[in-house]
Structure formats: structure tokens, C-alpha cells
């Protein structure tokens, strides 16, 4: 059997699937939006389901028109995919040959190196500085085909300034992807740099911000020539019919989006302060999750996660992930009620020490 498998696929470590989070648990594991999409969006999904015997629009023209208006880009600058994860892999497929290097600042989002390995490329990790800012000097020295930069970054929650992106673009001759998956939380973008830099790609997602994680939808904005190449390599039907209907309807309902984003950002500030008051270090976040350092309390991330899990609360143990030691965990910002339950149990863990 082994002889049939591509050698670079053999080298990939088995990634455990996400744990089951039982009904009724406080689920802050992946960093999902705690609120469902608006009733209009749910209606649009139900209406699209009535024609589910028909294939979706393979070009996604109506979706791209809406996105063009939303981003103030041209339709010809947009590619859509089955979540931004799908587009990360498409980018590696289009730009990276086997054994070519992809630069990934760490801590960073795991799909960057997973997709690189799936395509036979070589991920090159470049450590961020102690405060999680990019180490630009090291990044620009590396010889690579592609660089993935999260802004805001997962799991550190911080943005990269436009000046830093310009410096990288000026000093490197390769494709630079700025992943703005959390854009609506941060309101920080480098979209306007697309006019100057043909090698820049801005990647976005509707999973966390619009609460559409279950449908899978992401898009990227880039120079039309790059988009033409993406369209050569993309699947025939990259985005399903329900997702296309949901995205169109979501982009018609921006007031609902704004209200949810505002609630989550307010809760984020409360949670940041209260977790900090317990003695943890909480990193400032421009997303809907928090990275928490546990070292000051001498508890590992693993212990926190296990203890919360025994109380049916799910946060993520990201200790020992690339670029991190054992003293970290990551939690989504939930509803006010969920956040209060999390705080109550964190308090108990701290006082039981
Ligand atoms: C930085 C970043 N990019 C991309 C993604 C993938 O998002 P999706 O595939 O749901 O669009 C995530 C998901 O956690 C992320 O954190």
C-alpha cells in the first residue's frame, strides 16, 4: 500500500480531528462567532436549498459582484473558495513547486504549513519577536516563493502595520499573502496596496466575522492576472449553492454584522481585563479570540484546558505549537453568559492552586 503514496504526503504528521464538543457545552474551542447569521440569511439558505438538485454557479458571478462592491475592488480581482483554507491551498498549488520554500512567521496559522507540505513545498518558520511582532529582517533574508502573514494573526491576535507590509513588499521578490480572515474585527486592511504591488494578495473569510463557518466561504483579492491563473487551477464548483446564497444575503445585511461585531469586541475587552485580573497574561487581540499566557500562575495550558473540559468548557491547548512553549491556551469570545462561565471556572482553577 505504502508504495502508492506520494513521499511528501507520507511525511505529514496525522493531525487529530477537533474534539467533539457535546450539546450544551460551552464551546470556545475553534474561535467561532457565537451568533448565528441573520434571519434573512437563513431564509436565503432555505430558498437556495429548494434548487439543490442543480449545480451552483461555477463562476460565482453574483457573489463576486457583491464582494467587489463591499471591498471596492473589481470583480476581476476576486477569487472565491470553499473557506479561506481552500484558497491557501490553491495559492500553494499555483505558486510553489516541490521543494520550494514558503515563509511562515510563527506562531502562525497551521494551514499555511499544512497546505505547503501537502503540495510538497518546504515550510520555513521564522520566529516572531517576543511581543509577537514580525521579525522583518529575518523574513526578508529568506529566499522563498511565497510568504503567509496573518493580520490579525492567529493565534497571537495582533495586526501587522501597513508600513511593515510595504517594507516586506519592497525588499522581497515573491508572492506576499496578507491573511485578513478577521478583518471586520480589526478594520485594518492593506487592500489599497494592491494598486501598487502586483505580488500582493489579500485573503479574507466570512467564517468568523459573518458567522458562516459551517458553510465554508473565503475570497482573495489580487491582480487580475493572478486571478486568471487561480481560475485555471481551481475546482469547477469551488463554492456550493447554499454558501453563495448566504454570502449575497449577508452582504445585504451589514447592519446585523456590525451589531454582532460590536457585541463581540465589547465582550473581548471585558474578558481581556477579567482574565488579566486573575493573574494571567492576556495578549491584546484584534480578533474574536484571546491568547492567554499561564506561566505567571505556574499552570500549563494543558492543565487549564483539561480542568475546563472536565466542567464541559472547551478552549484550545495551543501550548507547544510552533513558536510557543507549554504555557498558553486560546479561547474564543463567546456570548456574555458563556464568558461568565469561563471566568467563574478560571477563578476556581486559580484559587485551588
Ligand atoms: C488566520 C486564519 N486564516 C484562515 C483561516 C481559515 O478560515 P476559513 O477556512 O474558515 O475561511 C483561519 C481559521 O481559523 C484563520 O485563523
UniProtKB/TrEMBL annotation:
<dbReference type="GO" id="GO:0004400">
    <property type="term" value="F:histidinol-phosphate transaminase activity"/>
</dbReference>
<dbReference type="InterPro" id="IPR015421">
    <property type="entry name" value="PyrdxlP-dep_Trfase_major"/>
</dbReference>
<dbReference type="InterPro" id="IPR015422">
    <property type="entry name" value="PyrdxlP-dep_Trfase_small"/>
</dbReference>
<dbReference type="GO" id="GO:0030170">
    <property type="term" value="F:pyridoxal phosphate binding"/>
</dbReference>
<protein>
    <recommendedName>
        <fullName>histidinol-phosphate transaminase</fullName>
        <ecNumber>2.6.1.9</ecNumber>
    </recommendedName>
</protein>
<dbReference type="InterPro" id="IPR005861">
    <property type="entry name" value="HisP_aminotrans"/>
</dbReference>
<dbReference type="InterPro" id="IPR004839">
    <property type="entry name" value="Aminotransferase_I/II_large"/>
</dbReference>
<keyword id="KW-0808">Transferase</keyword>
<dbReference type="Pfam" id="PF00155">
    <property type="entry name" value="Aminotran_1_2"/>
</dbReference>
<feature type="domain" description="Aminotransferase class I/classII large">
    <location>
        <begin position="26"/>
        <end position="345"/>
    </location>
</feature>
<keyword id="KW-0032">Aminotransferase</keyword>
<keyword id="KW-0368">Histidine biosynthesis</keyword>
<keyword id="KW-0663">Pyridoxal phosphate</keyword>
<comment type="subunit">
    <text>Homodimer.</text>
</comment>
<dbReference type="GO" id="GO:0000105">
    <property type="term" value="P:L-histidine biosynthetic process"/>
</dbReference>
<keyword id="KW-0028">Amino-acid biosynthesis</keyword>
<comment type="similarity">
    <text>Belongs to the class-II pyridoxal-phosphate-dependent aminotransferase family. Histidinol-phosphate aminotransferase subfamily.</text>
</comment>
<comment type="pathway">
    <text>Amino-acid biosynthesis; L-histidine biosynthesis; L-histidine from 5-phospho-alpha-D-ribose 1-diphosphate: step 7/9.</text>
</comment>
<dbReference type="InterPro" id="IPR015424">
    <property type="entry name" value="PyrdxlP-dep_Trfase"/>
</dbReference>
Amino acid at each position: 500500500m505504502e508504495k502508492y503514496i506520494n513521499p511528501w504526503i507520507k511525511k505529514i504528521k496525522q493531525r487529530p480531528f477537533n474534539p467533539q464538543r457535546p450539546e450544551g457545552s460551552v464551546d470556545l474551542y475553534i474561535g467561532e462567532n457565537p451568533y448565528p447569521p441573520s434571519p434573512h440569511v437563513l431564509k436565503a439558505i432555505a430558498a437556495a436549498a429548494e434548487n439543490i438538485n442543480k449545480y451552483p454557479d461555477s463562476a460565482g458571478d453574483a457573489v463576486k459582484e457583491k464582494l467587489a462592491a463591499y471591498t471596492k475592488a473589481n470583480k476581476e480581482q476576486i477569487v472565491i473558495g470553499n473557506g479561506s483554507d481552500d484558497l491557501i491551498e490553491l495559492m500553494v498549488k499555483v505558486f510553489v513547486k516541490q521543494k520550494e520554500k514558503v515563509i511562515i512567521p510563527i506562531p502562525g496559522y497551521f494551514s499555511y504549513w499544512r497546505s505547503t507540505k501537502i503540495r510538497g513545498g518546504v515550510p520555513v518558520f521564522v520566529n516572531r519577536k517576543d511581543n509577537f511582532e514580525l521579525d522583518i529582517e529575518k523574513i526578508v533574508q529568506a529566499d522563498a516563493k511565497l510568504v503567509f502573514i496573518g493580520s490579525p494573526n492567529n493565534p497571537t491576535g495582533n495586526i501587522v502595520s501597513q508600513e511593515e507590509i510595504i517594507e516586506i513588499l519592497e525588499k522581497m521578490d515573491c508572492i506576499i499573502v496578507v491573511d485578513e480572515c478577521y478583518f471586520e474585527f480589526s478594520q485594518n486592511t492593506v487592500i489599497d496596496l494592491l494598486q501598487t504591488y502586483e505580488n500582493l494578495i489579500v485573503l479574507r473569510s466570512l467564517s468568523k466575522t459573518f458567522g458562516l463557518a459551517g458553510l465554508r466561504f473565503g475570497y482573495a483579492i489580487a491582480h487580475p492576472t493572478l486571478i486568471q491563473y487561480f481560475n485555471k487551477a481551481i475546482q469547477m464548483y469551488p463554492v456550493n449553492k447554499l454558501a453563495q446564497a448566504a454570502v449575497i444575503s449577508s452582504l445585504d445585511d451589514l447592519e446585523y454584522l456590525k451589531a454582532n461585531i460590536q457585541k463581540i469586541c465589547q465582550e473581548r475587552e471585558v474578558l481581556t481585563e477579567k482574565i488579566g485580573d486573575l493573574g494571567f497574561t492576556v495578549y491584546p487581540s484584534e480578533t474574536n479570540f484571546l491568547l492567554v499566557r499561564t506561566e505567571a500562575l505556574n499552570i500549563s495550558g494543558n492543565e487549564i484546558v483539561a480542568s475546563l473540559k472536565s466542567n464541559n468548557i472547551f478552549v484550545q491547548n495551543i501550548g507547544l505549537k510552533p513558536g510557543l512553549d507549554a504555557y498558553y491556551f486560546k479561547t474564543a469570545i463567546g456570548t456574555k453568559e458563556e464568558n461568565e462561565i469561563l471566568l467563574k471556572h478560571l477563578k476556581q482553577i486559580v484559587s485551588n492552586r
